[in-house]
Structure formats: C-alpha cells, structure tokens
Amino acid sequence: MEWNDLRVFLPSRARVRSARLRIRTFQSRLTLHRTRGCGDRFSWTCLGDQSMHPWISVPLKKMLGIHAQSGVKPLRDMRSIGWRRHSYHVPAQLLDRNSVCYCVGAGEDVSFDTELKLIYDCHVFIFDPTPYGIQHFTQLKEHVESGKTFVANPKHTPYTYRIGADQLAQITYVPVGVWSSKTTLRFFDPQINDYASYSACLFTDAKTVVEAPVDRLANLMAQFGHASIDLLKLEIEGAEYEVVDTIIEDRLDIKAILIEFDEVYHPKDKFHHFRIKRCCDRLRAAGYVLVHSTPNLKRAFVRRDVYERLKALEGSRPDATSLSSVTEQAQE
C-alpha cells in the first residue's frame, strides 16, 4: 500500500489542529496553578462554564459529588409550592394545620409563604429585616385588607396572591434576620435589575448599605415558644452556610429544611460548588436526607426519621399529588 493510499484514512490538518486546540483548552481549565499563599489548587473554571460540553462537565461534577442530583434520595409524593422560581418542593404529607413553618427571607415574593398558609392553614412566620421585604409584605396586607388584588413579579412572571385577609392576618412577619448571633448586621444592596434582595455575605462592594437586627435561630424559636419547627425555608443570599452551622451546633428540632444556595447565581469565587457541597454534607452527617434538588441547587432536606415515615406512607393515598405544582395549577 502506497503513502497516498494511507492518506485517505488520516484526518485532515485542520481536524488535527482543531483537536489539539480542544485538548489544550480542556487541559488549561483543569491545570494545577499556584496561588499566593494557598499552595497548589485546581482551577475549576470548567465546572461553571456553560460552553463546556455536557459529556465533560456532567461526569466531572458527578465524580466530585457536586452535580445537582448527587446524593438525592427522592420521595415520590412531592408538591411544588410557590410561584415559578420562588417555589420549593415539599413532601405532600409533611404538613398539617398544626405545623410550624419558618420562612426566612422574603424579598418581593412571598408566594411560597402565603401558599403554605392557604394550602395547610398552618402557623407561618416570615423573617426579613430588609426594606424590600418589609415594604412588599406591608403593601400585600394593605391591598388584601382593602379587597384589592396584589401582584408579585409584575414585569416578567406575574403572580396574583390568592390569600384572603383573614388568613394573611394569621401570618406573623418578623423584621429580624437570622444569623449566628444576636447583633446588628450590614446588608448590601447590589442594585441589580429584577433582583430585590439585600445580602449580608454577597455584594460587599455595593454602595447601598443598610443595618438591620439579626438573631440566632435558637433564640427566635425560644422567643416564640417553639421547641420544634416542622419546616424551615432559608432564602438568605449567602448566609445559609452560617445558619446551617448554628442549626447543627444547637441540635435544633427541625423536620425539614429548604435551602436556596444563592452562590449558584452570584458566586463569590470559583469554589462555591464546594462550599455548597460542604453545607449539604454537614446536613447529611447531622441526620438529614436530600429528597429533592433543582438544576440550580434549590434543595429540600428531610430529617431521617421523618423521611422513613414518609417513605412508608408512599402509595397509601391514591390521590397523591406526585410532583404537582399546586400554585401554578391554581393560577392557570
């Protein structure tokens, strides 16, 4: 066989150059680099790079335990409560009218919080000391009490609150944040379009800053006379790590914890995946089971004894609303 015959089976020079470029690009994203005072570290740029092909990023995230579905042990009967991106998945048989729910973080959408009250008629407490949260809840009360409709997210995905004046009056709004101690904390407003949230941990270079009272969750529970909580929602813009640590340290009696990890949207650096993983690992070690996770790491944890009880009840109700979106069905 002559050389000219072999050339038919060989890739073109352009293909070789393209393959070499792809290899070098991938290697550069995983190359060990030395950072001052920190020793050798991986540069995990590729983990959050949407341009990287899924066949590389997905297996890599699974291998490192930072994929959205890593460690999820799903329950079959789940409800999506709240409106669109402000919704959370909750075990359908977790709550009843005697349940105590703490919703930490309000902003300009309390659809999840109000739907909890509407669906279960349970005891709902909302904690948010920031101007956005206080103003939004005040406007909601004024509109509902006067018989007017009130809409959240009017510019993009509008949600009309369904709650009535009587049930809204039974929701307790507490203008105090949750932190690791009782103090006054600085909250930063990033002034990003369509992002009505202050943060004590992110956007620390923001020009708009407010000071507001915060307290440890154990202190707030004692203040309201709650020895246990059935459901805790944490949507607190990066402060979730600090609060989860206090929950574990104080061994608080909380049946289910819902967390939005805000660093998915506003990372402080390229290691946010591992901070999230550490937080989730700590909850698992403390006896919680990860039962649901969205692609953006909005997660639901259930204490193991409660998880086992709910698992045993699966299938016992023929009308179970498996992964149904209660709020969106009502709006349609």
UniProtKB/TrEMBL annotation:
InterPro entries: FkbM_mtfrase, METTL24, SAM-dependent_MTases_sf. Gene3D superfamilies: Vaccinia Virus protein VP39. Residues 122-289 form the Methyltransferase FkbM domain. GO terms for molecular function: methyltransferase activity. One of its GO terms (biological process) is methylation. SUPFAM superfamilies: S-adenosyl-L-methionine-dependent methyltransferases. Keywords: Methyltransferase, Transferase. PANTHER family: METHYLTRANSFERASE-LIKE PROTEIN 24, METHYLTRANSFERASE-LIKE PROTEIN 24-RELATED. This is FkbM family methyltransferase. It comes from Dokdonella fugitiva. The lineage of its organism: Bacteria, Pseudomonadati, Pseudomonadota, Gammaproteobacteria, Lysobacterales.
